[in-house]
Each structure stands twice: as C-alpha cells, then as structure tokens.
Fold this protein.
Amino acid sequence: MADSIRFTLNGEPVEVGEVSPMTTLLDWLRDRRGLKGTKEGCAEGDCGACTVVLERADGRHEAMNACIAMLGQMDGQAIRTIEGLRGTDGAPHPVQRAMAEADATQCGFCTPGFVMTAYAYASGGEPAELETIHDALAGNLCRCTGYRPIVEAMTKVVGVAAEPASLPAPRVQSAAFDGRFFAPRSLGELTALRAEHPEALLLAGGTDLGLLASRSRKPPQAAIHVAHVPELNVIDAGKEQIALGAAVTYARAMPVLVESFPALRAYLARLGSRQIRTQGTIGGNIGNASPIGDMPPVLLALETRLTLVSVRGTREVPLEEFFTGYRKTVLAPDEVIQRLTLWRLWEGESFHCDKVSKRRDQDISTVAGAYRLRIKGGRIEDARLAFGGMAATPKRASHAEAALLKDGFEAARAALAQDFQPLDDWRGTAAYRLRVAANLLRRLELRLADPARPVEVEAL
Amino acid sequence: MKGGVHTAQRHDSALKHVTGQAVYIDDMPEPAGTLHAALVLSPVAHGRLKKLDVPRGSGIVAVLGPDDIPGKNDVAAVGSDEPLFAFDRVSFAGQPLAMVVATTLDAARHAAERATIEIDEEPAILDIETALAAKAYVQAPQTLLRGDPDAAMTAAPHKLSAEFTVGGQEHFYLESQIAFALPGEDGDIVVHSSTQHPTEVQHICARLLGCDFNRVTTIVRRLGGGFGGKESNASWVAGAAALAANHTGRPVKLRLPREIDMIATGKRHPFLYRYTVGFDGEGRVLALDAMLAADAGWSLDLTPGVVARALTHTDNAYWIPHFRAVGYSCKTHKQSNTAFRGFGGPQGVVIMEDALDRIALQLGRDPNEVRALNFYSEAGDETPYGQKVDENHLPRLWAEVKRDSDYASRRAEIDAFNKTSPVLKRGLALFPLKFGISFNIPHMNQAGALVHVYSDGSIRLNHGGTEMGQGLFIKVAQVVAEVFKVDIDRIRPSATSTAEVPNTSPTAASTGSDLNGWAAFAAADTIRQRMIAYAAEHFGAAQGDIVFDDNTVRIAKPGSNQVVSFDELAKLCYLGRVPLSSTGYYKTPKIHWDGAKMKGRPFFYFAFGAAAVEVAIDMLTGESRVLRADLVQDCGASLNPAIDLGQIEGAFVQGQGWLTCEELWWDKRGRLKTAGPSTYKIPGSRDAPAVFNVKMLDNAPAKEATIFRSKAVGEPPLMLATAVWTALKDAIAATGDGRTPVRLDAPATPERILAAIETVRVR
C-alpha cells in the first residue's frame, strides 16, 4: 500500500509521495517547496515563528505550528502559509498591511508567524478586545517590539473575510504512508492496526510527539495517527455526563467544557497556545502521562473515566487508576484510549482550578490544582482535590481531602505534605511547590468566602 | 522631500517582513553541493578530554577538530583564551569539541549526537561565591575610586549594608546563530553571517584559516535579532563555517538549533553585590563602598568591558562624593557571558536603587524624594570616573514622569488599596536613568561609510553598521536623504560588507546611528560639495548660490533662478567627469579613557530617561503583573520617532523579562536545563505593561554635536525596567509593616517574590 499524502496548500492541491511522512511540515515547506517565509525559531512549538493556518471547510481558520506537525498529519487538510496571503494582484493582505503600518516589525524574523496568527484571528469574528487579542497572541514570541504595536495592529484586522477552504476528497479507508504512518478511518481499523503494530506511536495532535521529529530529529519509526477516527472525535454533551473522544482537540473541546465549568475558561486559555490547542488533544495529554499536563488534574477532580479499546474488547478505567508512574499507564500494548467521560456538576457542587507558572501564558505549570466541592448549608460535604506538578503523576490529594471534610481548610493545607513530596526543578523548588499548593487552597477558601473579590493579579 | 531626519519613517524592510520576503541567511538559495554542519558539545562542565570519536557514516563528509585548524585555534574577541574546539581541557557543558560536516543537516546532527566522548570529570565552579572564594577570575579585579570612602563612611551619621543578586539573561534572538561560508578562488572565503560585528567575523575566520584579512569577506544583510548575543558569539559560528568550507572546498552552512544555541553561547552576566552606603539624616548619600562580582563564565570574552560599564554606571543618576566600586570577573565553568543590551549598565544601575530604597525605609522618607535629593546637580558635578555631567535632564524628566504618571494621587490610592487588600498588593516606583554613550574603549568609536550617486540620481548607501531590526538602515538613509535633500526612496541601503567598508566596529553600545550616521553624512557631503562645485562652474554661479532642496538643485544667480532636478545634476556631473562616489569617516570627538586608573571621559554624552511603574503581586503564589508603565526617554532630537518608540518599548519589555520571568537554571553538574522557550520564558504579549505610556523628551536636542543632535536609544530604555523590580519591592514591603527592607533577587519569579514576602512578614 503506497498512499500519497494529499492536502491543499495556499489553495492549490498538493500530492506528496516521495517524502517521509515523518518530515515536519516546516522542513517540507522550506526545503522541498522553497517557501522560506515560514521560520524555525525553536523547533518545539513555543515561539510561533513557524505559524501557518489550517483552513477548515466551514471557513474557520486555526493557527498551528508547522515545526512540530508531521507531513502525514496534513493529509486531508488545507494549509495557508505567509506566501499564500497576498492577493492575486500581489498586493499585501490587509493583515500584512496592518502589521506594517503599525510599525509592528523590527527584526522581522517572528513577523510571518505573527501575521498568520493575526490572519486566523481576523477571520474568527472575535471581538477586538485585549483579552482576546492576548489569547490569540499567546503562541507567538517577539523579542524586539515589546508587543504594543502588534496588539495595536490586531485591533485593526478583525472582520477580514475568510473563504471556505477547498479540501481534498475525504478518505473513507485507512491510509498508510511509506508503510509506517497509518491513518485509520474507523475504530475497527484503528484497533486492528494497533494490534498489528504495538511498537508504533499513537499520534493524535503531535504537540508532544512532534518534538521527536523537530527538535530531536529522531521521528518515530512508525506511527498510528488517530485524528481521523470518527469514534475518537465524538463530543457527546449529555445531561449528566460529557463524553469526549480522545482525538478531540482542545480547540473543539473548549466551548463544551467552559460552558459546563466556567472556571476552565481562564485555565484552558493558559494551556499551551492557540497553535497548540488547534492540534493538541485531551486524549494525548492523558496518554503521554506527563506529570505536568494541565488537563489531568482537572479530569481527576471531575471523576473522569477512560474508555480503553482494543481488538479484545472495551474496558473502562477511572483516570486515577490510569497513571501508574512517571510517564507510565495501564494502557496495554494493543489498546487505545477511545474516549473520556466526566460528570457534570450536581446540585451543590462547584468546580475551581488554578495554575501557577513563571509566565502567565503558554507556560508549563509549576503547580496546577483543580477542585470539585459539594457544599450544603455552608458545609463542605465532598471534595476532590487534584494537583499537577507535585508528584511523578497528576494525583489526588487524599489526605488533604479528608482533612478538609473533617477539620476545614487549614487542616487540608497542612495535610498536603502527607500527600506530596514534590521535586526541585527549573520550574520551582519542592518547598515552593508545597507552599503554593497549600496557598492555592487558601485562595480557594477566599474565593468561596467572597466570589466577587479578586484573588488573582490578573483580575486587577 | 520625503523622509529626511526627524521624521517618522517605517522600517525599510517592513513590507518584506510581513510578506515573508525578507531573506535571512537560512532562506538564501543553496548552491549545489552545499554542506551542513553540526557541533559536538561537551556534556560535562569541567574535566580532561580523553577521547572523542565521531562515527563516520553515510553523508558524512568531514569531522573537524582542533587538529584540522590550519591557523590558530582561537576565537577570542579579546585576549586569546578561547579555542574554537576544546582540546585537553573542557571548560563548560556545551563547549564545542568538534564539528561534523555532512551532505544533509540530519546526517550531521545525528553523527554529532552519536559521538563517543570520554572526559575525566573534575570539580566545577558553578557559582559566583565559589569563584570568589577560590579567587578564580578571568581578569584582575577592577576598581573605580573617588575620594576617601573609608573615612567618609566612618564619619557618616548613618550607614547600612546589603547584598543581592541579579540573574543572567538569554538573548533569545528569534533567528538563532547562523553562518553560511562559500569558498572562492585561491582560498578566498565569503561568509554570510548573522553578526553584529562583520569585521570581527573576518578577523576570526582569517585567524582560524591562517590567512590575511583580505581573503575573507563578511556580508550581512540583516539579523533576526542580536541584542549583543551576536557581537562576539557570531564570530566563532562563522569561523567554524569558514573552516569547514575551506576544508571541504564546498559551501557550508552552520545553523545552531535553538537548544544548541542556548547551551553553547554566552548570555548576560549574572551579578552578586555587596555594598555599604553612608548617608545623612535626610538621606543624602555620603559614601558608597560596593563590590560587584560578575559571573564571566569560562573565558574572558567581553567581560572586561561589561564589568567596566557596570562600575561606571553604579552611580547612575546620583552624586556620590566618596565612591569605591570593585568589580570582580569571576571564572566559572559555564557559558562565557557576553554583551547583552546595556552591557553591564543594567547590572550597575540597580545598586543605588537598592541602596536608596533601603535608606528611605530606614529614615521613614519617600524613596523618590530621597532619589531626587541625590541627583547630579545641574551645575555639572563629576562622575566618579571624572566626567562632567554638563548636560542634565534629570530634574525635568523627574517632573514630567511624576506628572504624566499622576504619581502623587496614585501613590495615595495604592497605599489605601494595600491597607484593605488581603492577598493582592500593589507597588509603585520611579526610576531615573543616566547612561553613557560611546564604547568604553576609545578606538572603537570610529565608523566608515561608502556612498555612490549614480548618473540617474539614485543613491546607494553602505556603512559598517548592521541591521538587526533596530532600524539603523532607515535612520542612516534619512541622514543621506537630508544631505542631498532627496526622497528617502532614492536611497538604497545595501548589505553590510567588509569589502565595502573595512575595519569597522561592532554595531553595539547603542552607537550604530551616531557613528554610521556621521560617517554616511561625511561621505554624502563630500559628494554634495563636488556637485556644488561643478554646478557652480557649469552654471556660472557662486558655490554659495547652489541650494539643494526637495529633490532639486537651485542655482540662484542674480536675476535668474535656474532649477534642475537632482537627477539631472547627477547626470551633468557624470558627463563633467565628477567623481560621484565617496567614502566617509567619523571618529567620536572628546573621548579618552585610562582603563588602569578608570578615569577620563569615556562617553561622548549621556542619554537620560525616567520611568514610573506600577505592579501587583499575589501574596499566596508570588505571581506578579505590571499594571502600568509611564516612560520618558531622552532621544535628543530623534532621527526617527517611529523607530525610536519601538526601541524604547521593546527595550523596556526586554528589561522587564530580565528582572522577572526569565530564569536560567543549571543542574548541579552545570548543565543548562532551560535551553528552549518551553522552559526559558521571555515576556509574551500579555506581560507587557497593561497600560504603557511612552514618550520622548521633547525640545531636548543633544548638547554635543551628535548627528542632527539626536541621541542613541538602543540600550538606555532597557534600564527603565529597573522600576519594575523596585515597584515589586515596594509591593512586597506593603505585605509587612512597610518599614522592613526587602531583599529581592532577580529574576523576581513567583518563587522569589513569595520568598521575599515571607522574610518581610515573619518579622
């Protein structure tokens, strides 16, 4: 089976057969297509210099990082690069003009990435408010301007018409590129491939695994790309529970989650960047079992269950039993995560979450905390407190939970030391992590006491 | 005419930037046969190199080490202590040991990673304290002394002592280090380098290859950011590429991936300070005795200059009658720290800010009144190194920044807020700046330019300065436009090249437009004088009657005013066999410096500035946020207010990053673990001040004869971010009794802020 990768590039169909599907999109654009406008600034998805735009059939545009996307992931997509923004008459796009006119460029190396981010933002119909603009810009770093002129340009680019993309005809059957990049189109195909290729890496958005191809230059020998499996893309928002397919991106999951758990609005806006949330999936965040993933503490607090599937059948595992150690899980070699299911809040329940990092946006947590409380008549009747960054896995604070129910917040803060023995690293010392986790419970207490009073600097 | 001096002109490459058409070195077409290089780096901080073996496999063309260097294995900018490839001794984790040259980038990188390296590890010095204790220095301590600080300290009614540290800073230019070397005839080499110092690239390449300078040509069209990180560090990268091109006879590109760049290249110097300050009951400083210890890293690099600038900026805006500052250049087994925007100035000016805050707290006075009390007088006090402060905008800036920021009423409002706010506190601080402009080393203050006027009246401009985003090309083009009184788009700036203008200084120390502006002026003016002479002869007029104005030349004879276009006159001059090409040269006047005594006039002039910054902190997590910044910067008569505004804003946010979120972290074996943007956090758009008011001091043409009375702007505003740090200390003080001095080491990460809060609250 020798399928070729088909996608739309700057409005034109492209078919790639000779190049490794593990090649990064960025390398392919620059080295194979000679499109040098898209830059490599970091090769780890953090600086945004490589930002391109995914154009959806419904006219939505989403920014993404070309450096950590493998070519095989582009199959069936439509991509626009900085070279594809100019009009047919060669005139600069209004977004390009706005950036130039605002004096928003100095060295210019980050600029194409910012322009593409602005292009995606401009067509999204969002209000030209600072909050939204910063959210849109969180995945792009500029070292020269101090951002003021870029933000100013962003206020002037809203409402740019976005045309629906013309996508390649959708595939109905599994594709295999170069005999090692498998892209199944059904759950059956996925589990069969998984059974056949237990050595292959499961690839969803690739925002973590993509670094193997970009920064490490050691792409996986084989990958199974789960993004096109319909069963893994289901969002089922029921009355009591919400089920999210494991390949649902953060960008798609956010509206549903934020609607049910308003505290997630600010929290998820700090998870990666738009570029990352375009590609990254919640299933991937769980599957790679990082101790510092932002989503696992939230899902632990919300009593999430995972549905694991293989050719042998289906089983359900509570998330807290899924992680067994540093980057280790109960997932069998032939299994995949199909979906996760979490409870909505019941009467008397509330959900809260916090993240502390060196930089507000697009940083990895030093400590993340998520809490579901059931309060009746001013008394806390039930509590699920979960933390990230505090142990080898995201973990519930069972001692603190018990102490909270029995003796209140102060006892819960003290009990955290029994729950966690965190490590020192560049994000913080163990002592700081323990102190902050305790203080986050203090913040929670203040928030419950007076929800109107700001308890974060961001509120000022 | 469009685009003369003192007008807001857009960056000349802006449209190319936004369309992705601006060409950086990695975007250049690669000739057939181009090879790619990757470095083999030391995995340990200190030890003896026993064995190095790089696997030869498919695609590998050459593996180059110390023995493959035909010239000298030395890439030091100053002195000669820096081998390109380590031999015998390894001095930091990340030090280049060898280079793999291959047909593809991946082949080169994979082979480099698979190298077998055996090193007998030895104990490493990884911090300043240990180096001080071991007296491990890269150069002898430097002392700046005035008066009798010991006696003055003894006699002072009050004194206090303190200690604190500031961290280093990664440049994080978005374009990582890169060079592309192309071999020519007879061993000639053309090197495209992302460098701030094309001439040093030329010298280092020649030194490695053992050839004359005239065999090497450096070409630099633009850099994707420099900030000092491509002053000396770009030279060895270019040297390595040239070595490989020379060895293989093929074009070789060496681009450092971000992680390698961050591990292998130097950064801003971290500093440790200990000082004692003597003062009177009103807070007037009588004496300062300060120790500044810089972490130089493993080699000398530019540390002498950085420490000298820190010492000459310890006074900042303040008259200190008795003064001693001793600078130590500590040798550690880390990256060799280097130039970074401000070049020691930022690390100098923080000392007095710390001291004055403590003095004010101790005396129960407003720290900003204490600051103003200590300003240099307008009568022309001398700095500790003996330079008269004979132009002084401090009182005016202070008044303006207080007014613009509505300081008094906000101070009262913030104090009231802090009294009732349980976990959020706000802080407000003012900061004055005096920053010396010129290279501390007098001979570096020279520049050359080359201007051609073609027979159609179009003009080509070349000079020794590099364009790294700061808008130098457009500013110098404005100068030339002004000389000829022609539209700016008649002038074509061209890539910096050692073949066009030789023996240049780095584009650094904020001097780019000062030096190259004057040099270009001189070149253009030479041509203009020739054109005037010829026009006078041709039209039978007096030279004084030839007037250039608005793309034309007027010949004002009694009774007849003739006007020709500039283009026509260019053509006439050509036909009249007038040379329409000229070099121009400039050397900064008045400066002199005795480095041993640390006395003289190192700076042509001072640039001044002032800032008012408000921050908020969270007492539970230590998180902070900059709520507002009001800046006033002295740019003299700005050559280009649009470009200068961008420099001020960008520098401030970069300085803010240095003092807050940007933290370099090495493990216990000296390996840098924050080697990418996922772990090393420069400010993002949300981190810039939420309210950001920036203006240039108006009606303040430079007193000295700078180019069109403008002033340098590249570095000074970075130091205005000092007010972020002092405002954070103000907020932290408010978490306690308001009288307890705050030690806040930089970068003020949430963890450090929380730790500082706890020291204030425990008492």
